[in-house]
Write a structure and sequence with these properties.
2 helices, membrane, two-stranded antiparallel ribbon, transmembrane, transmembrane helix, binds zinc ion, single chain, Zinc ribbon domain-containing protein
Length: 114
Amino acid sequence: METGPSDPGGNPQPGRPSLPMRAPEVSGIQLCPVCHGKMRQTAEICPHCGAEKHFGATPWEAVRFTLGGLVIGILFTIVTRAGWAVGAVAILACVTIAFIVCQSRHGHRWMKRP
Ligand SMILES: [Zn+2]
């Protein structure tokens, strides 16, 4: 993210009169999607409920999607009666697509700790 030269990283500017109703850190506050508690925008773990910010799929989800891609690739090979060279490429492509879909589907989210 690029900021202009006039914006010193969100600091209140000296020339601007400060409003008493608005604290400078309000803009850096986000609500936890799990417990709706307030926390800093940069926080990776909710201080209230302990939910954790996750990027991408969990290993188990990646395994499930990859296996799904593998099955689709094998089915494709059987249905089209492709040779093993074509089948291997198809399976590889399906696994790769499944993995990408898996990662993009589970973008970033908050997960409650067990
Ligand atoms: Zn929370």
